[in-house]
Write a structure and sequence with these properties.
By secondary structure, this protein is α/β, with parallel strands linked by helices. The chain has two domains: 169 residues, Nitrogenase molybdenum iron protein domain (Rossmann fold); 113 residues, Rossmann fold, CATH 3.40.50.1980. The protein is built from ten helices and eight strands.
């Protein structure tokens, strides 16, 4: 009987230790992937937005509400990326720990320099413009380092016993990315200084990171479907300015891009935009390795 009691006590203690993991909910798979590398086995992390979809437009589901209800820490992209769906989830989850302004809520846009902030008031006539600026900042790997550091600091505040381990993991994450960034930039040297077109204004940070520039978008305004007149004007610009590359996410319609390719000869490259958006992309580093490989293949 005593042996049974000891075994029972051990099982209960083990279960308790398992339950003591910090429950982290990230709005996107990219944030979840970074958090997993920083928190390692001391956290349980899950993402709300499915991999491969448009993170602007997510359908709130009861399963998401349950995850946020149980969370100790919520990681958000911020800069209004989730404005159409996250507030409703937070309200329904009724978890004061992870409300904005609380220690359990981390807006990672505050850890980076945001590009393309509007200089004046924003209205619907401007399309889906974010007042906080362009929210696609995770597509610069140097911002990934900053995000990892911010996550490590917040985890250390929540779990001070393991603070040094979170900081060590953040340093290892940064050093690993630094080594790879040099290689990625070398492989994309052919693209430096050149113009490109994107479908949506998603790749400004990627362009800044690797030395090319975005000359325009297939969308006439952010979030607005292209019109025939806009496509014709864009085709004229592509020919006049000798723009050779159009990059886009896989969830947008392809008809407009194919038409531009037929009219101008511009090359189309469908890029993964998040962790999990393509088979084999399971880490933040994998995302850029695939992006760089796709762009390098285009340049051959």
């Amino acid at each position: 009987m005593r042996l049974f009691a000891l075994i029972f006590a051990f099982v209960v203690a083990a279960a308790s230790n398992g339950e003591a993991k910090i429950k982290v909910v990230a709005t996107t798979t990219d944030l979840a992937a970074i958090a997993a590398e920083i928190g390692e086995d001391r956290i349980d992390v899950t993402a709300l937005a499915p991999a491969g979809g448009d993170p602007h437009h997510i359908e709130a589901k009861p399963s998401m509400i349950r995850k946020v209800h149980d969370a100790n820490l919520l990681l958000a992209v911020g800069a209004e990326l989730e404005i159409g769906w996250l507030p409703a989830i937070l309200e329904s989850a009724r978890n004061p720990r992870v409300l904005p302004g609380r220690p359990g809520y981390l807006d990672l846009s505050e850890s980076v320099v945001i590009l393309e902030k509007p200089s004046g008031p924003v209205n619907r006539a401007m399309g889906d413009v974010h007042a906080g600026g362009n929210p696609h900042y995770w597509l610069d790997p140097e911002n990934g380092m900053r995000m990892a550091y911010a996550i490590a600091i917040r985890l250390a505040e929540i779990d001070p016993v393991n603070a040094s381990r979170y900081r060590q993991a953040s340093l290892a994450f940064e050093q690993g990315l630094e080594r790879k960034i040099a290689d990625w930039r070398a492989r994309l040297g052919w693209l430096r200084g050149k113009p490109a077109i994107s479908y949506h204004r998603s790749f400004s940070y990627l362009a800044a990171a690797f030395g090319f520039h975005m000359a325009g978008e297939v969308e006439p305004l952010p979030g607005i479907s292209p019109t025939a007149s806009h496509i014709e004007q864009l085709a004229k610009r592509i020919n006049e300015e000798k723009i050779g590359l159009l990059i886009m996410e896989g969830y947008f319609e392809r008809r407009s891009a194919r038409y531009l390719a037929e009219r101008t000869g511009i090359r189309i490259t469908i890029l993964p935009h998040s962790v999990g958006s393509r088979a084999g992309i399971v880490s933040y580093s994998d995302l850029f390795e695939t992006i760089v490989a796709d762009l390098a293949a285009t340049g051959r």
